[in-house]
Amino acid sequence: MLGLARTLLLITLRSCAKPEQAAGRAVGEAPKPAAPPLAAAVRYAARGVVRSVDDEKSMLWIAHDDIPGYMKAMTMPFVASSALRRLVRAGDHLEFSFHDDGSGNLVLDTLRKTAP
Ligand SMILES: [Cu+2]
Hints:
five-stranded antiparallel sheet, 4 helices, 5 strands, alpha+beta, binds copper (II) ion
């Protein structure tokens, strides 16, 4: 179990260190391998503010608060479905949940708008 936690932490550090890589994939670049099911099963909850909605890359840039034991507060991209992107705009305050897809992308699972 400790081993898994350490692996997840490493994946997280990698995805936080290079948000510009998570945000975009060059045209013609091979897709990343499928996520290991264990990593995809871990879901995290967080609060934050939407900074921008990128429909072209299917991303929401969110300035998230500290996620204790996982990540310090920062602004970074999350993969978000069109259904979720349609619900928000820049400046919206959110509670949201996400998982790591195992290839360095954090994927939004749920979101709920909150008062500022
Ligand atoms: Cu982060």
